[in-house]
Amino acid sequence: MKTAKISNPSIVLQLSGLTKKIGGKAIVDGLSFDIAKGEVVGLLGPNGAGKTTTMRMIVGLIGMTDGDVHICGQSIRTNFEQAIRHVGGIIENPEFYPYMTGYDNLKQYQRMTEGVTDARIEEVTKLVGMQDALDKRVKAYSLGMRQRLGIAQALLHEPKLLILDEPTNGLDPAGIKEMREYLKRIAEAEGIAILVSSHLLSEIELMCSRVIVIQEGKYVTARSLGETESPKQKIISISLQVGDAAHAQAVIEGMEGIEVVSVTASRMTIQIQHEKIPGLVAGLATQGVEIYRIEEVRETLEDEFMKLTGGNRIA
Ligand SMILES: Nc1ncnc2c1ncn2[C@@H]1O[C@H](COP(=O)(O)OP(=O)(O)OP(=O)(O)O)[C@@H](O)[C@H]1O
Questions:
Q1: Per DSSP, what are the bridge partners of residue 281?
Q2: Are residues 95 and 46 in contact, defined by beta-carbon separation less than 8 angstroms?
Q3: Tens digit of pLDDT for each residue in 197-206?
Q4: Which residue range or ranges hold the ABC transporter domain (predicted)?
Q5: At 91, is the secondary structure helix, strand, or coil?
Q6: Protein residue whose Cα sits closest to atom 25 of ligand 1
Q7: Burial of 233 from C-beta contacts in 10 A (0-12 / 13-18 / 19+)
Q8: I need a surface site. Which of 88, 213, 308, 314 has the fewest CB within 10 A?
């Protein structure tokens, strides 16, 4: 297969037609996407979708059948050593010496890794908020603290790409919230790209700026998360809470280009072009309709995922 060469220097990770076949079956099937510097991207899919297999190929734990992975412009097929030095990752649970302190574990890693300074140890432990727990033995750490120490260790050699497979597995809601905060902090402070997998949409939505959905090894969709402006011409769903919905409906039915989808006593959902909303509000107010609330009804990623995959839920 012909593989694309990176032209944009801000692209840290590029997958092109990445494929893994085992026993003739494609576990990962022609996966292509890019991740840029500073992005925290979620790899989302149901159990068995191929997330771990994809990540294992990116970090070189297993070989690929076809396609390629470029990290900072270097192909892991042809320049593995140069490519892989830009990667830090946790694919399986991070291994530590339980009877040693967190600090001694990081010092041990420093001895085995070229170019890691004491200042860097201090820097990464601050980034993951571990500076006060470093003199405790790892066996006394909670799961969340081990995860943080693992991430600190993965950052020691100043990678440009951080790969985390299901990092929130087993964490409580407070731990998940903390992780979300320090992943964002790391991406910003270090200017690196982070790829994080999960089978839980709710976690990905909170942690990531973009999500890539895969199912049965194939790319399904990608979506930027967070608020986006609606284009003027776009038809959107609006929910209205009014004093008298029957009255509002009668007024709206006299207006052009607005479709009433559902009505209850005080609520209604309509479809309308974005640019017609001010006219709608003015028209209703002129006719004496009391408006208490007006908001867009957004299709969630989960709704979209359900449509695309015919009801196979993400989680
Ligand atoms: N070495 C292997 N031999 C045979 N099948 C495998 C092998 N490794 C993975 N698979 C299969 O490939 C599919 C994808 O597995 P993978 O672990 O990548 O999925 P996943 O999205 O990470 O799922 P999970 O969230 O459950 O970890 C699964 O059906 C799995 O059983």
A1: none
A2: no
A3: 988 887 888 8
A4: 13-241
A5: coil
A6: 47
A7: exposed
A8: 308
| 246 vs 235 pLDDT, higher one | 246
> Which of the 8 DSSP states describes residue 79?
-
> What ligand 1 atom has the least distance to the C-alpha of 56?
18
Please list, in sequence order, all residues whose beta carbon lies within 8 angstroms of the beta carbon of residue 144, skipping any fewer than 6 positions away.
Answer: 171, 172, 174, 175, 178, 179
- Ligand 1 centre from 258 Cα, in Å? 48
- Which of 25, 27, 47, 197 best tests ligand 1's pocket when mutated (most atoms within 8 Å of CB)? 27
Residues 90 and 144: their CA atoms lie apart, in Å, by 14
Residue tagged 């009505």 (tokens): 263
- CA-nearest residue, atom 2 of ligand 1: 22
C-alpha span between 160 and 85 (Å, rounded) = 9
How far, in Å, CA of 31 to CA of 16, rounded?
6
Contact in structure between 157 and 116 (CB atoms under 8 Å)? yes
Report pLDDT for 95: 83
Q: Who contacts 51 (Cβ-Cβ below 8 Å, separation ≥6)? A: 43, 44, 45, 165, 166, 197, 199, 214
Report pLDDT for 156: 93
Residues 6 or more apart from 117 whose CB is under 8 A from it?
Answer: none
pLDDT given at position 179: 85
For residue 310, name the pLDDT band (cuts at 50, 70, 90): low
The answer to whether the pTM exceeds 0.80 is: no
What is the average pLDDT across 205-220?
A: 88
Q: For residues 214 and 309, is the Cβ–Cβ distance under 8 A?
A: no
Q: What is the pLDDT of residues 160-176, one digit of tens each?
A: 999 999 988 878 888 88
pLDDT tens, 19-69? Answer: 999 998 999 999 999 999 999 999 998 888 999 999 999 999 999 999 999
